Amino acid sequence: MNRTTCAALWCLSICFALAASSPPLLSPPTSLRGTAQGSGILVGAAVRPAQLSEPAYAATLAREFDMLEPEDALKWETLRPDPQTFDFSQADAIVDFATRHNMKVRGHTLVWHRQNPAWLTNGSFTPEQLANLLETHIKTVIGHYRGKIFAWDVVNEAFDEGVRTGQLRSTIWSDQPGIGDAGMGAAYIAQCFRWARQADPYALLFYNEAEAEEVGRKSDAVYAMVRELKKQGVPIDGVGLQMHIGDQVPDIASISANIARFTALGVQVHITEMDVSLPVDGAGNATGDDLRKQADIYRRIADACLDHSGCSAIQTWGFTDKYSWIGSHSKHTRGAALPFDGNYQPKPAYDALRQALARGR
Ligand code: XIL
Questions:
Q1: Residue 45: in which H helix or E strand, if any?
Q2: Separation between Cα atoms, residue 271 and residue 239, nearest integer Å
Q3: What is the structure's pLDDT at 26?
Q4: What b/e readout covers 152-171, taking b as 16+ CB neighbours within 10 angstroms?
Q5: 65: exposed, middle or buried (C-beta count within 10 Å: 0-12, 13-18, 19+)?
């Protein structure tokens, strides 16, 4: 064998070895995940498992994002068809996809007042029975994904809205009848975080909230709770700011100040559910002017996160306008909320996000 043939064979064998060990879809450096590389920020999207078999959905996801979160697949309603069963099939499909494409997974959510099964909400359980159910749920679900899900929304939306904004919500877990800490403020939340830490000492544990992005009554209440939990040594690592933006123009300076005060407590901030919904016509289309304004909001929110080293992930709630909860949520008067259109084409919002990520910290 001459030297040229030998070199060619060596090269071939290296290529095969590399191909076998690298993820099937390589993300280009110009993608969101490629652009964000090195700036210490994860770029995520909420995912519906049924869509993973759609080639354009899967290819876009794998190319652009390095973090996934099941949109509904880890909620009680999906996981717990009956008191004895844990049905992990849908969430497992998402975690497998993420593993194959070198992505992290956020878990959402273990304790919430919505999307619970009827057997739970209509059952008449004592506080002790509910505490047992919840402890088993938290430990079984986190345990199933130990080492695979790096961060959990342990508790979601515990603070009320409307006239009761800033007060703890009355729920099955807090005081209806609650898990045994009714009337003791956030004690039930502290208990959930302790169970979660016991289930996986390495997972990051988040409190996730809606309409707490700007400094205001709700975020003040969340801030006071997190500060108190930290003081008591409760294992909480982060706060998720959902960031569903509708027709109110967000006050970016206030959002930035809010991120600053949370990270100053020593917790991380993740932007967990960002979308910016627009008025749409019967065909689901928004105006060009609105799409440009939307892009500006995406850019400025990404900038606000990047400006704080403790803000370590930015995630959109879905990624294509083809599948977004906004349609049904708004009776189809709003939509076009995400960075990709219904044909997986990048929108101005995508370019804005990518430019912000390219600028870095
Ligand atoms: C939404 C999902 O996107 C929908 O598919 C589902 O029908 C309802 O819930 N805040 C949250 C998310 O924390 O879990 C919600 O997700 C949106 C609001």
A1: strand 42-47
A2: 9
A3: 64
A4: bbbbbbbbbeeeeebebeeb
A5: buried
**Residue 71 beta carbon below 6 angstroms from any ligand 1 atom:** yes
27: confidence class by pLDDT, cuts 50, 70, 90: confident
Q: Is 344 in the pocket of ligand 1 (CB under 6 A)?
A: no
Distance of CA 361 to the CA centre of its chain: 21
The ligand 1 atom nearest the CA atom of 46: 3
Q: Which of 74, 90, 317, 320 to mutate to test the pocket of ligand 1 (most atoms within 8 A of CB)?
A: 317
Q: Which of 157, 209, 211, 214 is catalytic?
A: 157
**What are the structural domains, with CATH classification, of the chain?**
32-359 (3.20.20.80)
**Cβ count near 246 (within 10 Å):** 15
Query: Atom 3 in ligand 1: which residue has the minimum CA distance?
Result: 325
Dist CA 91 CA 137 (whole Å)? 15
Q: Is the CB of 72 under 6 A from ligand 1?
A: yes
pTM: 0.93
State yes or no: is 214 an active-site residue.
Answer: no
Cα angle vertex 228, ends 227, 233, to 5°?
A: 100
Residue type, 289: D
As given in the structure block, the two tokens for residue 353 are 């996000």
Q: What is the pLDDT of residue 110?
A: 99
Does residue 272's CB lie within 6 angstroms of at least one atom of ligand 1? no
Question: Measured from the CB, is residue 277 less than 6 Å from ligand 1?
Answer: no
| Token pair recorded at residue 27 | 């993300």
Q: Tell me, what's the pLDDT at 18? A: 41
Question: Does pLDDT of 95 surpass 70?
Answer: yes
